[in-house]
Fold this sequence. Notes:
The chain has 186 residues and is α+β, with helices and mostly antiparallel strands. 31% of the residues lie in helices and 32% in strands. It is built from six helices and eight strands, in the order E-E-H-H-H-E-E-E-H-E-H-E-E-H. It has an eight-stranded mixed β-sheet, sandwiched between helices. It starts with a strand and ends in a 6-residue tail after the last helix.
Amino acid sequence: xxxxxxxxxxxxxxxxxxxxxxxxxxxxxxxxxxxxxxxxxxxxxxxxxxxxxxxxxxxxxxxxxxxxxxxxxxxxxxxxxxxxxxxxxxxxxxxxxxxxxxxxxxxxxxxxxxxxxxxxxxxxxxxxxxxxxxxxxxxxxxxxxxxxxxxxxxxxxxxxxxxxxxxxxxxxxxxxxxxxxxxxxx
Length: 186
């Protein structure tokens, strides 16, 4: 995938150490953490560790073109097959955004442009996604872009889930993405 992706309103680029302050606004927000499924960062050390994880390949900072401010992240993550070996035909997409920018179409724009990049690279790729069933915004986004629901699972109580949570699973092929006709950004 390209290291930099440009959309009408956004630039997707690799994370850099200077993104720590803006990342802090995202990872220290309990509502964002609850929706995205990570533990709220409680110190600059934890936020810096989080940033180091985001500085890997196939993870991009979502920035506004006008200000270059980091407003979120989007990434493609490796998927294992049934034999615990990497499945080179599949990726899982994950994303999060600063709550101040929810509801403005930025994530739809970022996801749709990244998916275009994925399927231009290899039309045989399959992109997987999951979201907590209660995360209505994420469910609507995935379904709008053509993702097909493949199942649900109730996650047990854990450090991330003080109460059981239901997770919904999706997949997307190039054909469904193109047939959906919903990949335009506005």
